[in-house]
Design goal:
heterotrimer, A alpha+beta (71), B alpha/beta (355), C alpha/beta (251), B: 355 residues, alpha/beta, Rossmann fold, 2 domains, 7-stranded mixed sheet, 5-stranded mixed sheet, 12 helices, 15 strands, 19% strand, globular, C: 251 residues, 9 helices, 35% helix
Chain lengths: 71, 355, 251
């Protein structure tokens, strides 16, 4: 199963992944600040993820890993 | 030692550099040291070395930084105005603890100055060159043979202490021809095998090496500088070198380095013929300054005379070294004018050597 | 699709760049190329002075920190002493196109077998957003508070166009990293530069149009829009030169 994961403390909440996602399922959460003081990105619908990794490609901090794409 | 051959100082130095395993030379033309580049441009390709004429002094010293950082013996050479341009790079090299050799064949300054011999860059070379808290090793030859010997020693000391070493000559020594002999040993280009810190590709067998002089945390920067100063203390203790002639019973000790020391020695020889008790003292290492050797040389002296091809720069170190325990007088010519032994002799007489 | 993971050639140190700064994307692309060519153990990177001054902490290959503008000279020193290693520089616009112009031009014209990654974000980021050689006409910066006036401050430098005139240049290509499609192209260009280096075929420069959200005073997403709307028309993307200077070694 496709899964997009954000390394919580590495993310700076810049939002570039949000714009890159073709499925519009990446958001910046507004509840919990990380160590550096940022609200971070997360996937709001794992089932809809197609593991295209566009979010990860856009991430300037290499904070995103994507697994489970169709081989 | 092989047979002696007659060579220019600049060429003897260049040949000795090759024989010390200097694999890469990066330079930029400037009088009066250009023979070094010309000689190496001919020789380097024949022995598997690299000669590259850079676009500027600034580029040349930074090529040295890169090459030295990869653990390879390398050298650049220049003359006074060019050394000013290299000073930034020299500071970075010292800050990154890289060994390399820099040749400075001094000419008259300031500004474009002139192309005649000078020693007006003693302050520049011995007091740091570029910005920051650091030293570089400075060797001052006074013969063509010593031009060769000093460059060999400079490479060894640079590697031993991981810092830049300068051979400080002047236009007179660079252009002068004298017999010189080299070791017969086969020329072997240096490699990085004994430099585990070198950034030359980790081959997936060690952590990555970083060549750097940036420390944003002040205490960390202070720590690196203090470590470097421990090395400097060791150098000051063990690496000084000087030559003293007739100093034991001398009333007047004449202190001079480089080609000027030869002129001073001639004046001292003449003075001795006249019955004046004069001695000659010649620092070979300018950093580390031979403090103990000088104090031993002036032990019985009443006065000290410093002779330089400048308005007086090394005289400060002489005064400090002997803690102004005796009067220190000065005679110098500058702007490319070479002091004559007769002038120096007059000064010795004037100082009361005729008593 | 294979899993998307951090390339080995990138260390796991947290990047110090501002949120949304595209430096990190370009770092990753260089690291991916190093991984794909399996050359981490044979690569030496040279960092500049500027925002990417601490890039030596971010790459797992051996690294050197150059003084401001001198990275191509430092890289030349490494490469001449170690002709079989891979050497790249990573430089910003102030470093490469202002204080280091001479080193850049001469490394290029010598056809040094090095790869230069050139980040053009039209500003001096590290010092707080002053005018860069690449600042656009009219652009407001800390030192052009009324906008860059070309009668006073002159015109921006177009490095790829300039360098493409030199015989020593094998590859001069301008790319950007504003979306995944362009990121793929940027990576292909970097890969080509390293391939030319592998074959000792001359100097390669990959200019990457990049954002500086902080000093532009824009959100990361708006900064991407500005790059698209203002920068690309002035600095057209594309290949300015692709002509190996030497035959592939051994060919």
């Amino acid at each position: 199963m496709a899964k997009m994961e954000v390394e919580f403390d590495r993310c700076k909440g810049c939002g570039l992944c949000v714009t890159a996602c073709p499925k519009k399922i990446v958001e910046i959460q507004q509840e919990k600040l990380n160590k550096k003081g940022y609200y971070t990105a997360h996937c709001i619908d794992d089932d809809a993820c197609i593991a295209c990794a566009m979010c990860a490609m856009m991430c300037p901090d290499c904070a995103i890993t994507v697994t489970g794409g169709k081989k | 030692m092989a047979e002696k051959s007659l060579m220019k100082g600049n060429e003897a130095l260049a040949e000795a550099a090759l024989r010390a395993g200097c694999k890469c030379f990066f330079g930029y033309p400037i009088t009066p040291q250009t023979e070094i580049a010309a000689y190496l441009s001919k020789r380097m390709p024949k022995v598997g070395g690299v000669f590259l004429q850079a676009e500027s002094e600034v580029a040349a010293i930074n090529m040295v930084y890169g090459c030295a950082g990869s653990g390879i013996r390398c050298m650049t050479s220049s003359s006074s105005p060019g050394i000013s341009l290299k000073s930034e790079g020299i500071s970075y090299i010292a800050g990154a603890d890289l060994p390399c050799v820099i040749i400075d064949v001094m000419r008259g300054g300031p500004g474009l100055g002139g192309i005649q011999p000078s020693q007006a860059d003693y302050y520049q070379i011995t007091k740091g060159v570029g910005h920051g808290d650091y030293h570089i090793i400075v060797l001052a030859p006074s013969t063509v043979q010593e031009m060769a010997d000093c460059v060999t020693k400079a490479f060894d000391l640079a590697d031993k202490y991981r810092m830049p070493a300068v051979v400080l000559a002047d236009g007179l020594l660079g252009q002068m021809m004298e017999p010189v002999a080299f070791d017969d040993a086969e020329i072997v280009m240096s490699d990085a095998s004994k430099k585990p810190w070198a950034a030359n590709g980790h081959k997936n067998s060690r952590k990555h090496n970083i060549i750097n002089s940036l420390y944003l945390q002040a205490p960390e920067l202070e720590r690196t500088i203090r470590e470097r100063y421990e090395r400097y203390a060791e150098i000051e203790k063990t690496e000084t070198q000087a030559v003293a002639d007739y100093c034991d019973d001398a009333d007047i000790v004449v202190v001079a380095y480089g080609s000027t020391a030869r002129l001073a020695k001639s004046a001292v020889d003449e003075a001795r013929k006249l019955g004046i008790k004069a001695g000659a003292f010649r620092p070979v290492t300018l950093y580390p300054f031979p403090v103990n050797e000088l104090n031993a040389a002036v032990k019985n002296a009443k006065k000290v005379l410093v002779v330089e091809m400048s308005m007086g720069q090394m005289i400060d170190d002489v005064k400090l070294a002997i803690n102004c325990s005796r009067p220190v007088e000065f005679f110098g010519r500058t702007g490319g004018v070479i002091p004559a032994p007769a002038e120096i002799l007059e000064k010795i007489k004037e100082m009361g050597g005729n008593d | 699709m294979p899993d998307f993971k951090r390339p080995h050639a990138l260390t796991d140190v947290y990047l110090h760049y501002c949120p949304g700064c595209t430096h990190g994307i370009v770092h990753r692309l260089v690291a991916e190329v190093i991984d794909e060519m399996d050359i981490e153990g044979d690569t030496i990177g040279v960092c500049p002075v500027g925002c990417s001054v601490m890039a030596y902490d971010y790459f797992n290959c051996d690294m050197m920190e150059a003084s401001h503008g001198r990275a191509p000279a430092v890289a030349t020193g490494v490469k001449r002493a170690n002709p079989d290693k891979f050497v790249f520089t990573y430089q910003g616009d102030g470093d490469l196109a202002a204080i280091g112009t001479a080193e850049t031009v001469h490394a290029a014209t010598r056809g040094e077998n090095i790869t230069v990654i050139f980040i053009n974000n039209t500003t001096y980021g590290m010092t707080g957003g002053q005018m860069a050689p690449t600042t656009l006409p009219g652009q407001i910066t800390q030192t052009t508070p009324y906008g860059r006036n070309t009668d006073i401050e002159g015109f921006p430098v177009k490095m790829c166009e300039m360098l493409s005139q030199l015989d020593g240049v094998a590859l001069a290509e301008r790319v950007t990293v504003i979306d995944p499609a362009n990121i793929r192209k940027a990576k292909a260009a970097i890969r080509k530069g390293f391939e030319y280096q592998k074959n000792k075929q001359g100097f390669s420069i990959i200019e990457v149009l990049s954002t500086c959200p902080t000093n532009w005073g824009l959100t990361p997403v708006k900064a991407i829009e500005r790059l698209k709307n203002d920068m690309i028309p002035y600095y057209p993307l594309g290949v300015y030169k692709d002509a190996p200077v030497r035959n592939k070694e051994g060919a």
